[in-house]
Amino acid sequence: xxxxxxxxxxxxxxxxxxxxxxxxxxxxxxxxxxxxxxxxxxxxxxxxxxxxxxxxxxxxxxxxxxxxxxxxxxxxxxxxxxxxxxxxxxxxxxxxxxxxxxxxxxxx
Amino acid sequence: xxxxxxxxxxxxxxxxxxxxxxxxxxxxxxxxxxxxxxxxxxxxxxxxxxxxxxxxxxxxxxxxxxxxxxxxxxxxxxxxxxxxxxxxxxxxxxxxxxxxxxxxxxxx
Lengths: 108, 108
What we know:
Two copies of one chain form a homodimer.
Chain A (H helix, E strand, L loop, with lengths): L1 E10 L2 E4 L1 H13 L2 H8 L3 H15 L4 E4 L7 E4 L1 H28 L1
Antiparallel strand pairs in A: 1-2, 3-4
């Protein structure tokens, strides 16, 4: 018997940050591109875009910045707000998982 | 911004106890009938039966007993194992929720 759990954030009754979007945002941070991130995760660009765009609208704050031009052809970076949000969310998630696993062993 | 979370139990990689089945088992306990419980939840008898029957097979332990005959026409009661399982699961769930809410306020 194993215990499983998940944590997500909602605003106005709608999901804006859960495991899927966290993974997407982190992969955008790694690759510097929504397109590359979507490809790596196996998601269409359109779907990736709509996920983040929905989260941004729901939050009312930008999560990423498109850098135009330059020799590298620009790229996408996360805003410091998005980085902070990811950091906090992952901290909460790690703590929750550790708590649930510990209490599961004790109770069951 | 609100935090949401859920906890469930798996065995052999498959869900056997989550919020839905907990509610179903508790309603069977209250009503003494799978049929009445299904109706109260708004689920077909067939679906309710398959949910519990799957959980029983996965666990390898009976969760309810059908009492035959008598003037009241029998009825369905939960096994003491099922009662114990519900008690433990709800304890874990309450503690997890309290933990997540507390840490969410502190971190965010």
